[in-house]
Specification:
single chain; about 70 residues; alpha+beta; two-stranded antiparallel sheet; 2 helices; 2 strands; about 40% helix
């Protein structure tokens, strides 16, 4: 996990205690997010990382399946 992701996992509970973050936050892997989009009835048209392939720069283009 990138240092930024690890820092966020530490900071979010502190932000929740002070009311600066919502009470429920979920983290997804890129594969898990694409699977959730597909289960919701969308077709993933394009997915990738830009620039350089380092998350959190992952993008997904999807359209509703017909």
């Amino acid at each position: 996990m990138a240092l930024q992701g690890a820092a966020m996992r530490v900071m979010i509970p502190l932000m929740q205690l002070t009311g600066k973050a919502p009470p429920v936050i979920r983290f997804f892997s890129t594969e898990g997010l694409e699977a959730a989009i597909t289960r919701a009835g969308f077709e993933v048209v394009e997915a990738g990382s830009f620039p350089g392939g380092k998350p959190p720069s992952h993008y997904i283009v999807a359209r509703r399946s017909s």
